[in-house]
Design a protein that fits this description.
five-stranded mixed beta sheet, alpha/beta, Nucleotidyltransferase, domain 5, 19% strand
């Protein structure tokens, strides 16, 4: 791991599980902060990104991806993703988990696989005890870039500015997850103002 880089949870191979240690939590004990964890679901690559709800706006905590071997049977991939998510929850202690809302795919098999990954993410977040919310990809893109049809690369380019970071060197699936978390925070702030 590079100096200063964030730990990336998730076990690369299920056989490594016996030798793996649980990741250290990034949120110190006793610190009373709320964490919003965004999840961009997938059965081969799942992106995650965590933001701290700070008084002066959202702050970056961590982001990364969980990867499963595409040649594995679906049950093994989903189990691997589940274990990785459990590590992410232990690492970030989220109060809120925001999952990308399903949208229509032309390929039914793709839609089914995405539904399975979403199911694992939703159920595991509920079991962990986080409040679960959904955000559409277009809502997240519009919140970050002002354009609900923006390309993933546009979202990745704008996010560091919104999070007051010099740069954000994480995979594109992780920036998608951060955008989901950011959009949920903005939605929540707007709802609070409307009361």
């Amino acid at each position: 791991m590079k100096p200063g880089s964030q730990p990336k949870p998730g076990i690369q191979d299920l056989e490594d599980a016996k030798n793996a240690t649980k990741p250290r939590c990034l949120v110190p004990d006793g610190l009373q902060v709320e964490i919003v964890l965004g999840i961009d679901p997938g059965t081969v690559v799942l992106g995650y990104g965590a933001l701290v709800l700070a008084p002066d706006g959202p702050r970056f905590l961590t982001a990364g991806v969980l990867k499963a071997n595409p040649r594995w049977p679906i049950a093994r991939r989903l189990g691997h993703i589940l274990r990785g998510l459990e590590d992410v929850y232990a690492l970030t202690r989220p109060s809120f988990v925001v999952i990308e809302q399903a949208f229509t795919y032309k390929n039914p098999k793709t839609a089914i696989r995405l539904g399975e990954a979403r199911g694992v993410a939703i159920a595991s977040a509920f079991v962990y005890g986080a409040e679960v919310h959904e955000v559409t990809p277009s809502e997240a893109k519009k919140c970050v870039t002002g354009n609900g049809l923006a390309a993933k690369e546009q979202v990745a380019a704008v996010l560091p500015k919104l999070l007051r970071l010099a740069e954000l060197d994480v995979p594109i699936d992780a920036t998608d997850a951060l955008a989901l978390a950011f959009a949920y925070i903005r939605r929540r702030e707007l709802a609070r103002l409307m009361r």
